[in-house]
Amino acid sequence: MTGKKKMVEAKNLTCAYNGHTAIENVNIDVFRGEFIAIMGPNGSGKTTLLRAIAGMIKPVRGEVRVYGSVSYMPQKEHVNASIPIRVWDVVSMSILARNKKFILSFSLSKEEKKAVEEALNAVNMLELKDFPFTSLSGGQQQRVMLARALATKPDVLLLDEPFNGVDLPTQEKIISLLSKLSEKGITVITVVHNVSPLIHSISRIALLNKNLIAYGKPEDVLTPENTLKAYGVSIPVSVCEEGYLHPLFGDIHG
Ligand SMILES: Nc1ncnc2c1ncn2[C@@H]1O[C@H](COP(=O)(O)OP(=O)(O)OP(=O)(O)O)[C@@H](O)[C@H]1O
Ligand SMILES: [Mg+2]
């Protein structure tokens, strides 16, 4: 359900690290229940934009507003391998952080435990809930981090490359889950390099290269002119029997 209610609003958003500008004059609106993708080359400011929306970095100019609760799944989590922590507790931590509690999972309420269970189930990780987090594979850890972001049932879900290293069946399951969440009114903003698997689930793409190159419907954004501006090369198309396969788009063009 794409409502008219604005959930995220960035106006002339400019962020920098030690005087080095990472994103500049970004203007973006995201509505309730929208599912959008942020794309762009390495170093183009995608993570910076998400972190600014999450309120983790302060703009040097402009502003960003979020009208609701946010949860953020970072690009990669470095967990100290010497900390023995179970999968269940990694996911519980997001709820405990929201509640500003420091004690681990035994202090979750019945509903909160259900939320953790649902989140782990959504990413196919419930069976491994008692495993030490650090004993998991990279893709499994990624799935647990996604569950952690889901567990607080935020109004706005920010995901930074959530499919990195995730196997295809789980990726499909997660995409269908994110679509369902957006239909329920949750706003989903995800950074991806390969948009093909979600091209039919998203309403808009933000193409970034420090500046916002384009923001709109996939077919309007992923033009040769825009991909050239963003990536410095026009994205090649591969030819197959049925027509042309756009590597970012995933669609067959006749
Ligand atoms: N903590 C930091 N300190 C200093 N510079 C940073 C920091 N984080 C990012 N940058 C710089 O800001 C720019 C944007 O980085 P950002 O991580 O937002 O890019 P990205 O689009 O997410 O890239 P990737 O696709 O590699 O994840 C880059 O030039 C990067 O070097
Ligand atoms: Mg990044």
What does this entry look like structurally?
With 254 residues, the protein is α/β, with parallel strands linked by helices. It has two domains: 1-69 and 154-254, Rossmann fold, CATH 3.40.50; 82-153, no CATH class. It has helices at residues 46-53, 87-98, 110-122, 138-151, 168-183, 218-221, 224-231, and strands at residues 6-17, 20-31, 35-39, 61-66, 70-73, 156-160, 187-191, 204-209, 211-216, 238-240, 243-245, 252-253. Helix 2 (87-98) packs parallel to helix 4 (138-151) and helix 3 packs across helix 4 (138-151). It starts with 5 loop residues before the first strand and ends with a strand. Residues 17, 22, 40, 42-48, 75 line the site of adenosine-5'-triphosphate.
Features:
254 residues, alpha/beta, Rossmann fold, 6-stranded mixed beta sheet, 3-stranded antiparallel beta sheet, 12 strands, globular, binds adenosine-5'-triphosphate, binds magnesium ion
